[in-house]
Amino acid sequence: MNKKYENEIKVFEKYFHHLNNQDNILHQIRSYKILHGGGHRYENKNKELHSPIKELSTTIFYKYDEIKNFELEIICEKVYDMVVEKLGQIKKMMFDGIINITELTGNQIDAKGKGISPELILNMLEQIEITFDENGNPNLPTLNVSPKNFRKIKDLKYNPEQEKRHNEIIEAKRKKWYAKKRYRKLSYID
Fold first, then answer.
1. 38 and 99 in one domain?
2. DSSP string of 20-68?
3. pLDDT, tens digit, for every residue of 145-177?
4. Confidence of residue 188 (pLDDT cuts 50, 70, 90)
5. Residues 130 and 69 in one domain
6. Arithmetic mean of pLDDT, 49-62
7. Short-list 141, 140, 130, 128, CA closest to 178
8. Between residues 57 and 182, which one has the greater pLDDT?
9. For residue range 99-148, what is the model confidence (pLDDT) as tens digits?
10. 90 within 8 A of 56, measured Cβ to Cβ
11. In this structure, are residues 89 and 132 in contact, taking their beta carbons and an 8 Å threshold?
12. Same-domain pairing of 99 and 66
């Protein structure tokens, strides 16, 4: 860390972490500072994906008069814009990585231009792993969709046949979850 600007860098880092914690997606992801030489390598059924570490950077420009006159509102707006830009870069990098990994694993559903439907949602539930809390309730995944698609999903209604299929999917996932959980406990008995 540059000693000359140590306090300023700490202010930027604290503000970044504050805004990161306000983000509806990024606040759910734990992050750690680590020294890491290369990217990540993923393998699946004779396929391999190498994801190099990507650099994120932002630039902030101040006019001399803004600093000299200590125009705090302008300074804060520019810091905010810079941090929001960096958070946007992080989310883009994260979603690009998720897309690449789901392509590699084949864990994608093609709606074939039909849009969101109860059948599409049920097909997605069949493909993903679902965990359960201590009361047996499913921890369903978070979907990151546009506001338009969110309204469509929210307004979806299952017919009785789809409701039955949904319950069967959840029950099968619950049985699988408990079987794995029992196995993990048994494997650690001394």
1. yes
2. HHHSTTGGGS-------SS-EEEEETTEEEEE------------HHHHH
3. 788 888 888 889 999 999 999 999 999 999 888
4. very low
5. no
6. 81
7. 130
8. 57
9. 888 888 777 777 777 888 899 899 889 988 888 888 889 998 877 778 88
10. yes
11. no
12. yes
Do the beta carbons of residue 127 and residue 159 sit within 8 Å?
Answer: no
Do residues 49 and 57 touch, judged by C-beta distance below 8 A? Answer: no
Query: Distance of CA 4 to CAs 9, 16, 152, Å?
Result: 10, 20, 53
Same domain for 28 and 98: yes
Task: Phi first, then psi: give them for residue 59, nearest 5 degrees.
Answer: -125, 145
Q: How far apart are CA 71 and CA 94, in angstroms?
A: 35
Q: Which domain, by its residues, includes 164?
A: 118-187
Dist CA 106 CA 117 (whole Å)? 21
**What tokens appear for 28 in the block?**
């759910």
Contact 49, 100 (CB under 8 A): yes
The answer to whether the beta carbons of residues 129 and 165 sit under 8 Å apart is: no
Give how many domains the chain has, as a whole number.
2
